[in-house]
Amino acid sequence: MSRVCVLLTVSLLGLTACGGGSDDATNAAPSSEAPTDTEPPPESAAPVETEPAADTTVAPPTAPDGAVSVGLVEWAIETDLEVTAGTVTFDVSNNGDFPHHFAIARGNSYEELPQSGGGAIDEIALGDDFIGRTVNLRSGQSEIIEFDLDPGNYVFFCNIAGSVSHAAQGQVLAVTVG
Questions:
Q1: Per-residue model confidence as pLDDT tens digits over 119-135
Q2: Residue pair 137/94 in contact by the 8 Å Cβ criterion
Q3: I want to staple 165 with a disulfide (CB 3.0 to 4.6 A). Which of 7, 9, 120, 154 is the partner?
């Protein structure tokens, strides 16, 4: 029996010595004492003058006069159906809840454009008929983008793909550029 008591006593002393915890400072209780290794600033130190931080916010770009306003919403593109040929500036805004982008291709209708899985327009197969597109815009974002458009028929579309692309869900618009 005395051997068991000795083993228990030794075991308990070992646990007590280890503390049962870690040396990690995150487990330590906060100290209410001030650190002793720092010195207060000298009384003769002059106050430090600081300049206000530079404004790093970027205002959204302002569309120039004559820009064509484009609104992207779930499964529709809202804009003028007739656009004047030449360098055209588009002020594109995502007014929907999902990410969208604005793309342009030469063509008469969505149905006539080459398509890949899920009804997405095959931009590579379009070749030179693919004019370009914006980045994917989150809800509330906008982008100003310019394209040189010759007179003719174009399709505006959102080509974000999934099991069914946004274009296949109706986010396309046939437009005449004159």
A1: 999 999 999 999 999 99
A2: yes
A3: 120
Q: Which alpha helices (H) appear in 19-159, and where do they start and end?
A: 123-126
Which of 18-22, 74-78, 98-102, 126-130 bottoms out in mean pLDDT, i.e. has the lowest? Answer: 18-22
Residue 61's pLDDT band, with cuts at 50, 70 and 90, is low
H or E stretch at 5: helix 2-18
What's the order of all strands across the beta sheet hosting 86-94?
76-78, 68-73, 86-94, 142-149
Per-residue pLDDT, 11:
46
- Both tokens of 105, joined, read 């291709």
| Per-domain boundaries in the chain | 68-177
Residues 6+ apart with CB under 8 A from 90: 67, 68, 69, 70, 79, 102, 144, 145, 146, 147
> In the CATH hierarchy, which top-level class contains the domain 68-177?
mainly beta
**Token pair listed for 131:** 């004019």
Tell me how far CA of residue 16 lies from CA of 9, 10, 22, 135, in angstroms.
Answer: 10, 10, 13, 62
Model confidence, pTM: 0.66
Q: How far apart are CA 9 and CA 34, in angstroms?
A: 39
Q: Which residue has the tokens 């008469």?
A: 108
